[in-house]
Design a protein that fits this description.
Bound molecules: NADP nicotinamide-adenine-dinucleotide phosphate
Distance between the termini: 24 Å
Strand order of the largest sheet: 1-2-3-8
Order of helices and strands: HHEHHEHEEHEEEHHEEHEEHH
Number of strands: 11
Largest sheet: 4 strands, parallel
Structural class: alpha/beta
Helix content: 40-55%
Strand content: 5-15%
Number of helices: 11
Oligomer: single chain
Shape: globular
Amino acid sequence: MAGHRGMVGSAIVRALLAQGVSPDHIVTRTRADLDLTEQRAVQEFFAQEKPSQVYLAAAKVGGIHANNTYPAEFIYQNLMLQANVIQAAHQNGVQKLLFLGSSCIYPRLAPQPMAEDALLTGKLEPTNEPYAIAKIAGIKLCESYNRQYGHSHGVDYRSVMPTNLYGPGDNYHPENSHVIPALIRRFHEAKVAGAPSVVLWGTGTPRREFLYVDDMAAASVYVMNLPKAAYDAHTSPMQSHINVGCGEDITIAELAQLVAQAVDYDGQLVQDNSKPDGAPRKLMDSQCLANLGWQSHTTLISGLQQAYADFLQKHTPHNAQTA
Ligand SMILES: NC(=O)c1ccc[n+]([C@@H]2O[C@H](COP(=O)([O-])OP(=O)(O)OC[C@H]3O[C@@H](n4cnc5c(N)ncnc54)[C@H](OP(=O)(O)O)[C@@H]3O)[C@@H](O)[C@H]2O)c1
């Protein structure tokens, strides 16, 4: 389990434990103990542990600001860590690996909802292009190993592309977080301060899709364990990735109302229309996964309530960690 302390990786560990996998059978290392960008260390780890499956949920991840400020780190670290893990996995007989990508692999102007075959059909969003290129390379690494070593070594490396995720383990940093954790923090702070209103950036009209992270983890385990014939029947050797979303999008204004409800903030929501909106719509086409028999089940309001409980747990004085 690469990335077990991250939001997605920790959710996958929860999912595996809930399915009865023994904790002794889940091999993890902190980054301090194993930096996945270090090729020799990764090879030694695989030679020693000989895992039978690999979930690759480790990545250098960040918002627009971080992607724009550290583009070299985003492309270098992600290329290195995924290439090291995939190559060492293959060299050590791992037949099953799941690579976690992102919806930013799709072109900026991809038709909505974005289907798997939109990959490599147009220009990427420039702000996170280096990150997206690394993620596309991760998909192509998996496909290339399947094509070269599938028959001879039984290699079966799969990729899933999550939509926007939220939930326990999210990053609530005041300046550098995604929309849901940012709204949770702002509404919570307004509630505590008794502020009569909260300002929302933009017109509130862009539409976005959100998936609860434990649903993403369940989908990851589901895709990993699908029979090969089923996976192959719904993908092709050079288009093997599968989108994971909930299939529905909502406006940012509607989202803000739901977060206010989850946080129990009853002040006013005021829009600042002078702030930028971003793309009008971003929705994944998750029909392929639905055809394979998986659908998300956590409603947005229930997921937001669970996310807020996680926020409170981390931000009450006696439990507080660095946010
Ligand atoms: N969050 C989302 O909304 C979202 C949406 C779509 C796709 N995804 C994808 O899901 C995957 C996981 O994302 P996440 O949100 O769980 O990210 P995250 O919370 O930042 O977790 C990433 C994990 O990777 C580890 N890591 C990074 N570089 C490493 C290295 N060189 N060696 C060892 N470990 C390293 C981090 O360790 P440290 O804790 O030590 O830094 C962290 O535990 C990523 O591939 C991401 O693209 C996420």
